């Protein structure tokens, strides 16, 4: 019993259970498949938001290019599905049957070499994990070794997103260009467009989300999680204590990007296409907002954030199509200025203290900071180092 | 690939291409200076920088309309100068307001300014759309800004290109002088270097912050006014510039205005040279890749302020 | 745990029901579809949103984001057509009601909203989309849920869906006539192709290059693409100066247009001298509004519709459009094509005597519209329109003057052989 209670506390299982109840029971029962499919889509963004909680909330590394990894995962899955949809029988009217339609439009006469392995589902699944992880490693290894962080890192990830978008759009013979990879139909002969398939995919998505949540919780509760917080607050002190700071940062960033990629792959499966719009800067920043609204220090908050912001976006844009940008903009500003810890912060500060004691969750040590002082992990080259900032306005 | 052309043709093309690079350089400097002041001096990331630029562009559009409807035609040729000033004032005033309402609460959280200003940019875009309509507006230029000076048969120098360069020069020198010589500039630098000490010797740091932010936004406004000559004016036009602008600033070493100018020069020349030999898309990708690559190896950018930490 | 078991008895019944419901979800869904309050008369046997007095259609365009610039005209035209049809008594005695959704210039959003319109709102037809990417995104949705989309933009072809009526021109209709005209009337021999970097310009230029090289026997001296949203064109202008083509064939879109023509003008190229001649397939009167008439004066455009077309249909259309949206409004090719959508749909519904998608589809081929602003159009078996192609000459006031018109209606050919 003690062990179970310990687990409950350690993983905030009661909160997890509530979320599970909501996602597995309440929503599927109260919604038709159209709305549920939308929820499934929102949940794919929640994968990214969870990753951001780890690398931004805990690690202090703000990435404005998470869409890149979402896109990589989504494209890997889309390439597999597209190959299956482009069987020689389906594409008989093309000049070259058996290759995806957009390649035919662009006068390609054979499948490019890097498409070949995606005939295999096993390879595709591996690629969804490994390609983004490798890419994340390449992007970050040089930077973290050289102690690039904070704002600089954010802007560079933004540039990476821009580069990849231009590349994907420009190389349309190989990537489908601005249209993306569309018209995906079956997975090993199983039609993913039917309602039953959408139900199943939704539950797969929820299951994977919980896997990621547990991994995230595990990381936060481990020594690594505490080191991340320590690094976020005072990177140099951790370094002086003999830790290789960059290795931890690289790891957490790669983990976050793998989460994003899983989300992207689930997006492709549920929605039936992948588009370069996700790789760009705008969706990448939106995903940061999902995380911020939910609470950058709360994994569960990130899921709620992704759900709520997207639901608001959908209903706002349905009811007031010409006004929803105002609402979105106001939400961004409001959350950042008034509730820096997002919904989770509102919960722990205002709601939970009023609950009867036994319903409260024990506060894990790593979430103690009441105000999120993020990003103090500035580079050594930035003149406005943290101590100076701390004291600003002190003299007024 | 040059075999088909004569020597004179080649010379003129290189001359023109050099000029194209210079125009791009001026555009980059104009875009980046405002951001560099705000980012470099204050550590604040203004994602709405593009929208402040477009505010300048819309101000120019309105000025042009007022001049053509209410004022004698002889004055019309001068409207652009008025527009430049108004654009500076409008963007600067809005900047000061935003600093007061929003930014000053977020100085302790630099990354959060990024998110909040992104929200601001959404609101501003939708405001423009509501006020000016979703279509682009055409800004009519006075006649003297149109056309070109023909140096030889092949080499023609666009007048508005020259004008953009002139504005850039004036703005850059103005900013340089302000930062080096004026009271505000000295105070700003003092605050950047040591805020508590600056505050202790009686500098009103809050006021300095507000003026610096307003100055940066005002310069964005001027840039927007200037860009009506070479680009489009629509609710979302500002987004076209934002990534390039950030890269220029970071590449230059965020805290150095000279660095910003040097980096604008490097990037613009690289891009316009590559554009001539490669396709437009690939040139852009390669330029960005090289810049990101260099930043990974030399994160402090081209120039960095050396202060003891 | 205790609190849970305490409530167990009282919730047992519900739980079992829940369980059963969960297992039966797909079945329940199928039931829900059937049991919708469908008017099972012949005008509507599939449960569309049709009542005795109204019929609901969808309008799906971007009214926010970068594409709002282009798509606004289409929304206005579609609303105007719907108003006019309603004023004439509606369709099969029902007034048209529209549900408008915002695609927000984002292709996944288009897919989501298309699905919402078809699945939730049960609209009888959707007028919408602008970019090829948005159409490609919604296409599987329309095919899966059997909807009907009226798509207004000129586009690259290579598509023919039973669920789409393409009211704009496909690439060969728009391009070949223009190139023939340049070769014939302007004696052009050397061509320079320039476009934004995405599928429509690339496909258009592919067709153009084939036609120039193998049919006209002329030469392509350059082909260039710039990223969407690119704003610096001085390098390509220099290339044009160096290559000295007779014709620059342009498919640059969006905000890039403004930058391109302003910089062209500033670089000392006088477009009215026609050396080289500039022939665009992407700049309608809508775009000129942003570019400014004085910056584009003298170029030619190859399209099916110009606001200045001199015929009675068009004069009435322009008048009605201005009465609704103000005198300063301009009408471009796509706006007119969007205006055709509701009218073509109305004609098909009335021919079919039903709103049912399948019947409307079956009735669609050979529907003709003699009241079209562009003159006369007819739906081909391949769901594209027979239409004429015109060459417009841009004037200082931002309007095109029609200088050439194809003698015959041009057959749409979305899958051109040999191109």
Largest sheet features of chain A: 2 strands, antiparallel
> What is the general shape of chain A?
globular
Beta percentage of chain A is under 5%
Class by helix and strand content of chain B?
mainly alpha
Query: What structural category do the secondary elements of chain A indicate?
Result: mainly alpha
Mean pLDDT of chain B: 86
Tell me the strand order in the biggest sheet of chain B: 1-2
**Run of helices and strands of chain A:** HHHHHHHHEEHHHHHHHHH
Sequence-ordered SSE layout with sheet pairings:
The complex is a heterotrimer of chains A (396), B (309) and C (419).
Chain A: H1 2-11, H2 13-30, H3 33-58, H4 66-85, H5 101-105, H6 121-145, H7 150-170, H8 172-175, E1 186-187, E2 190-191, H9 195-221, H10 223-233, H11 235-240, H12 245-271, H13 281-294, H14 299-319, H15 324-338, H16 342-351, H17 386-390
Antiparallel strand pairs in A: 1-2
Chain B: H1 7-42, H2 49-70, H3 73-76, H4 79-101, H5 110-132, E1 148-150, E2 156-158, H6 159-180, H7 183-193, H8 195-200, H9 205-227, H10 239-252, H11 257-277, H12 280-297
Antiparallel strand pairs in B: 1-2
Helix pairs in contact in B: 1-6, 1-9, 1-10, 1-11, 2-4, 2-5, 2-9, 4-9, 6-7, 6-9, 7-9, 10-11, 11-12
Chain C: H1 2-6, H2 8-23, H3 25-35, E1 54-61, H4 68-87, E2 95-102, H5 107-120, E3 126-128, H6 132-144, E4 149-151, E5 164-166, H7 171-185, E6 190-196, H8 199-215, E7 219-226, H9 234-243, E8 247-251, H10 255-266, E9 277-280, H11 285-291, H12 293-296, E10 300-303, H13 312-325, H14 333-352, H15 357-363, E11 368-369, E12 377-379, E13 385-386, E14 390-394, E15 400-405
Parallel strand pairs in C: 1-2, 1-3, 3-4, 4-5, 6-7, 6-8, 8-9, 9-10
Antiparallel strand pairs in C: 10-14, 11-12, 12-13, 14-15
Helix pairs in contact in C: 4-14, 5-6, 7-8, 10-11, 14-15
